[in-house]
Every structure is written in C-alpha cells, then in structure tokens.
C-alpha cells in the first residue's frame, strides 16, 4: 500500500481531505470516490455540516448528506472532523434575515445558537473525532478597524462571550469529541515574529483555557498561495508550539496552496509555481510532523477539478491548489507529502 494514508499511519498521523458530497456520489466520476477511500484516513464535510445545509428551514433538519458521509467514513475506517458549528458564513437565510428584520431578538438568537450546537453535536455524538466549534472569529489586518478584533455575525450580535458558550454547549452534548478553534492566516508572520492575528488568537485561547472553557485544540487552516513566497518551517512550527504549550492539540485543517493560473502555462510538475506549491505543502506537513501534539493534516479538496479556489479567486484567476490535477494525476505536491511522511 503506497497511499498517503499508509505513509501517515507510520506516524500515527491522520491525513484527511475535505469531501465534496456531490462529487463523492457522482457515478460518472468514480475516481474521486476511489481516491477519497484509498488515500485518506480522515474526512471533513466541505459543506454538508454547515448550518445552511443542516437546517435550511427553521426546525427542519436535513441530516442525510452528512449521515451518508459519516457512513462512508466508517466503512472505510476513516475518522471524521466535524465542520462547522459556529461560523458567520453559510448561515440559513431564515436566521440572518430574522436578525436583520428584528423578528429574532438577541436573547432568542443566543437560545437558537445553543439549540443548534446541542442538536447537531448530539445527532452526531460518538461519530465525530474533532469538531470545529468556532471558526474564523478573529478579523484580518486588512479589515476595518485594522486592529485585530472579534468579527462577524456572532460577535456583532452576541458579543465575544459566544465563543466560550459555544465550547461549553458542545462539550455538554458530546463529552468525548475534541473541540477545536479553527482559523486561517495563522501560518503568516510579519518580520519573523507571530502576526497580530496569531497573537490575538493566542491571547484569547489562553484566556479560554485559564477560565476553564473546554477547548482541546487549535486548527490552522493552511490556505496558502505561492504568490506569498516560501513559508518557513521554523516559523510555522513555532506557531504550533506556542499553542500546544498551552496544553492544546493541533491540526492542519484545510491545507491548499494556490497559484495565479494565468502565469502558469501548464500543470507540468516542473512548473516553478507547482514546485512552490509542493514546497509550501511540505512546510506545513513538516511542522505538523515535528510536533507530537499535531494530530491530523487535512487537505481542502482532493483534486483541482473539485476545489473551491477557482470559483472564489477569479480576478486574477487562481487555481492548481490541490495535490491532484484535473484528471486525477498526482502532482509534485502529492509526491512531496509522501516523501515527507516516509522520511520523517
Ligand atoms: O449548493 C449551492 C447550489 O445549490 C447552487 O446552485 C450553487 C451556485 O452558486 O451554489 C451552491 O452553494 C455553494 C456551496 O459552496 C456548495 O457548493 C456556494 O455558492 C459556495 O459559496 C460554497 O463555497 C464554499 C465556501 O466555503 C463558502 O463559504 C466552498 O465550497 C468551501 O470549500 C468553503 O470552505 C471554507 C471553509 O468552510 C472554512 N474556511 C475557508 C474555506 C474556504 O472558503
């Protein structure tokens, strides 16, 4: 067995992918399903566990797509990362519109959030290894104000206290699941030190721990781009260590490394952009392998034909972010990850 999952098993590391349920169930696209089974030991629902998907109409749950993914994972001896309980994106319209028009009060909103977390975590109880409890609560330096702050729908409506509440409600509903805070741009540093965003998240996670809030792990998403140059394995592992020194586990949860497609003539693995993509994938994996508390390394998508990047970054167009090309040929990044796993 020369798969990524076999190589990762040597280190007791779980290697995962985000799964697009439409592609997984597309009979005309059998290779996608075959690769999810054979190469990965963990799966994350790319969309079907998000609130808009689970409860499109208030009080009516649509569990089937998520249940199917969990059954698939069980059949293939894979662990499941639950994604995501509290996020400001992909919320159902009944919720955001109800808050906007005042028909849902702040008091009711807090109850709705508590019920959502409780219902969802109980429904999947015993089947989820790690939950992304709160996702992307911190702002970015380019937001206004540029000082890092708690951003988005939940902070605006409930204040930052929703974060501690969310972890407590999740723990009560499934005491065995590992509870994660998940965010992006934790890999980026300024002038060799941690970025303001990393420092902000570090401070609030530290405070959560000190207050006895049940948080078990930090998820670094790992959405990188080759246009930002080569990331540094010392900096990334220092970042992880800061968090694991607080007694937390860690995981890379959404790794992909995109490029400007207009300047990449082909998907030949000798293309410098794809070399750089492979290098940055490798930096994150090596940082994870260096830290005994780094539990899993999840890629955000299997292949370039099923990646969020080309639909999201269109001006200028970006893509080529995953480790398999559009025809499911493994790219340089795939072989680099495997080499890292064998050599570590
Ligand atoms: O399901 C509808 C479909 O009915 C409709 O016809 C189609 C037309 O636009 O849209 C479909 O919904 C899309 C959904 O993915 C499912 O494919 C949404 O438009 C699209 O915006 C959505 O994008 C997802 C994105 O999160 C939205 O926030 C991406 O697939 C998903 O990869 C991405 O994942 C996030 C993580 O959850 C959190 N971290 C960042 C990461 C990348 O943005």
UniProtKB/TrEMBL annotation:
Organism (species): Luedemannella flava
Q: What is this protein called?
A: Beta-xylanase
Q: Which SUPFAM superfamilies match?
A: (Trans)glycosidases
The protein's superkingdom reads Bacteria
Enzyme nomenclature, EC number: 3.2.1.8
Q: Which reaction does it catalyse?
A: Endohydrolysis of (1->4)-beta-D-xylosidic linkages in xylans
Into which family does the record put it? Belongs to the glycosyl hydrolase 10 (cellulase F) family.
InterPro entries for the chain: GH, GH10, GH10_dom
Boundaries of every GH10 domain copy: 18-340
Q: Which UniProt keywords apply?
A: Carbohydrate metabolism, Glycosidase, Hydrolase, Polysaccharide degradation, Signal, Xylan degradation
